[in-house]
Each structure stands twice: as structure tokens, then as C-alpha cells.
Amino acid sequence: MKILLTGANGYIGMRLLPKLLDMGHQIVCAVRDEKRLSVDTKTRSKIDIVEIDFLDEPEKQKVPADIDAAYYLIHSMTSSVTDFDEKEAQAAKNFNAILENTQCKQVIYLSGIVNDKKLSKHLSSRKNVEEILYKGPFDLTVLRAGIIVGSGSSSFEIIRDLCEKLPVMITPKWVLTKTQPIAIRDVIQFLTEVLGNKDTYDQSFDIGGPDILTYKDMLHGYAKVRGFKNWIFTVPVMTPKLSSYWLYFVTSTSYKLAMNLVDSMKMEVVAQDNRLQEMLGIETHTYEEAIDLAFKKIEQNLVISSWKDSIASGQIKEDLENYIQVPKYGVLQDKKSIRIKDEDVVLENIWRIGGDNGWYYGNWLWKIRGFMDKLVGGPGLRRGRTHPDKIFPGDALDFWRVLLADKKSKRLLLFAEMRTPGEAWLEFKIEDGVLYQTATFRPKGLLGRLYWYSVLPFHLFIFGNMIRNIAKG
To answer: How far apart are CA 262 and CA 257, in angstroms?
Structure first.
């Protein structure tokens, strides 16, 4: 079967892609930027790629006419707190128009469980997208899920941050709201088994795990799996805005996502229709099993995807191509170089930079800079990195975004997404036995120049020691 996979570089898409390939399907990945598709060379050779931004005017000729089915995995919740619902509606309408000239028989849409008549903006948008897709020239299968638990998922990372950092929590009353979490591997199983199943055409199904829990239960359940205790006290006075700031400063989530999540957490999300589980004979995992499975993936360095690699989690609002050419004029630079003995070892050191491995010198200073960035609304160091020794263009790397990661040319280029009065790049390059490290800053006005010269004393010993430590074999 020939399948169009939208959102192929997203959290769900990256988990679904290898499963579909293992099943023998021919996959066409729809992404905004082909260079951001974080797959290895072997996987890339097995797929076709089309570059489409579903918010732009429909380009019908880009999608092969002979596709048999499609997965709709597009959403904009992390990019805005005001107009994401309008963007999601427009994307769905454009998707319908694009598929008019294809032979697509089935579209599978992963949505959210809708219980209450008065829905959050997030869930209301998902329901509206569902209604738009039902008008498309294909049979639609809708899977409505609640909290998805898996390594790298936003829900898992938020719970993990809260529990690991705060043994005692003062929480808003929405932690008493009921929800029905589901393991990511169960979601993938549902998504693959409804493919081509005519009994699921033009129907919507709820999917969930076996446990109905409050968010408080989930926090306690996480602590139990990890082998420690936590204490949670609820207060009725925490406003949605205060709750959002609380999540933003304590966890790795962005403020925009925190706002939208808090809005949704007030709504009960429990599966009311379990027909699909019975139809397909799927045995779902408990919440504690899902947490345990997530940690097994983390411990084995097998985390395939993370919500934090989304472009929307940072400051870049355009294609990476617009930043990949480091400017030469009107910039301030810190250039350093050092001769090295073993290029391969040094290259591996570069590829492990950031995240838990740190920045090779003055990690406490990097943490202070990250904390200061978070105070003014930047990402700080909250995002870390998805893989300990693999980097792909578009990945988040602490408060940097990877623009170029080319091991053949031995070059890594990062763009700063921290809040600064200007634009900053950090480049590592190996040529003829020499490691070059260049920090480039393009200031915005006088404030930008004052900022550069104020941090220059720190650069002198941080960057100097950093390159020396990276160069060590």
C-alpha cells in the first residue's frame, strides 16, 4: 500500500514511520523541510519525500496521485496560544483540497477524546478538524486519544520533570481531573491496525489504556515506578496563568504549550467508546507499565522522537535555510582553533555536546545562562537533546537549534534560540587536523553590541577551555 504520512517529523510520525516500513508499505513523507526529516540514510533510501506546508495554498501536484491511504498528524498547539485553532482548520481544508486529485481511499486522523459539551480550545480545535476532514474525498477513520505516555512525549516529560524535581508539590485543583492515559506503543498499534480496515471507515473511536486516573494519581504512579515517594497538596487559588508559569519554570515545556495544556487539563478526558479495542483484540498497557517501558527506551538510548525537537518549541519561525548561511559582515566573532591528533575522536566529542553531557567547560555557567533565558521567556536549557550521540538538522540542543550536522564534512552549525538582542551562531569544523570553533553574533543596534561586550570576558575562558576539552582524545 502507498501511504502519505503527514507530520512525518513529529513525535507520532517518527514512531509510526518504521512500523509502516516494517509492514512493507511504500511511504511518502510530507514535511515542511526535507532537511529536518531526522532519519538515517538507510531509512531515507526507502521512502519518498515531498515538501509541503499545509498552511500555504494547496499544491495538488506535489502529492502522488496513486496514494492509497494517508495519516493526518498535523497540529499547531505548540506554536500559538491565540490562533492555533485557525491554523489547524486551514491546514485541514488545504489537506482535503490536495487529496482531491488522488486515489486515496482512507485517511486516519489522531485526535483527542471529547467528553464535555464545553471543550477547551485545544479539544474544540481537534473536533473541528475532525468535522472538516469528514468532508474530504475519502473515508475517514478517527482515533481519539487522551494523554499519550512514552519516552519523549510532552506528557511524559512534564510528569518526569515535576516528580524528579519536586518531592513536595503545591498544585492547582486541576490535578484532580480524571484522564485515561495510553502508552505510545498502543497508539501506534491502533494506528497501524485500522489501516485498510473497512469496518473502521467513516467512524470515530476513543482509545485509552486500562487505567482511569487523576493527574495526581499519575504523579504518584510515576514516583512508585521510580522507587520514591512524593507529596501533593492541592489549592483552589492557582489561576490558569499562574499554573502555566508553574509548568513552564519547573518542567521542560514551552510557555505556549503550558498554556494550552492547562486549558485542556480542566476537562475530563475518559474513553467512553471501547468498541475498537474489542474489534481489534488489542490488550493495552497500564499507566505504570507505560512509564516502565519509557524508561527502558531511555536507558537503551532508543528514544526515536521528542516533542522538544519541534521548530515551534523555539524561536525560529522560518525555514532553517534562512539561517544556515552565517553572515560575514556587521557581525562580532570569537574565533578559536587548535591542532588535534585524532579527528574521529574529536568529531564524536562534538556530536555529544549539550544535554546531559554538558558543554565541556563551565556547565554551571551555562545553567545560569539558561535560567536567565527562561526568566525572560526563552527555552533555557530545558530541552536538552533527544539522542546522546546523534544529531540531525532541526533538532533542539538545549537553547540552540541544529542548522547543519554533517559528519562527512566534519561540521556542526548551531543557531541560538535564547533571548538575545541579536542573532548568534556557534560552529565547529575540522579541517586538515585542526578544530575550528567560531561564535558569531549579529547585534541589533547599540543594545546588541553592549550585550556582546558584556559577555566577552566570559567567552574568553569558557570558549577557550571548551575547545581544549573537545580536542582531547
So the answer is: 9
Contact 230, 166 (CB under 8 A): yes
Helix 121-133 to helix 84-98 angle, to the nearest 10 degrees? 10
Q: Output the CA angle 75-79-85, nearest 5 degrees.
A: 55
CB 431, CB 410: distance < 8 Å: yes
The angle that helices 343-351 and 445-471 make with each other, rounded to 10 degrees, is 130
Cα 145 to Cα 346: distance, rounded to the nearest angstrom? 44
Question: What is the pLDDT averaged over residues 106-112?
Answer: 94
230 close to 223: Cβ distance less than 8 angstroms: yes
Tens digits of per-residue pLDDT, 117-144? 666 676 778 888 999 999 999 999 999 9
Residues in a beta bridge with 439? 334, 426
Question: By CB neighbour count within 10 A (0-12 exposed, 13-18 middle, 19+ buried), where does 426 fall?
Answer: buried
3-state secondary structure of 388: coil
H helices of 41-181, in order, are 41-44, 84-98, 121-133, 154-165
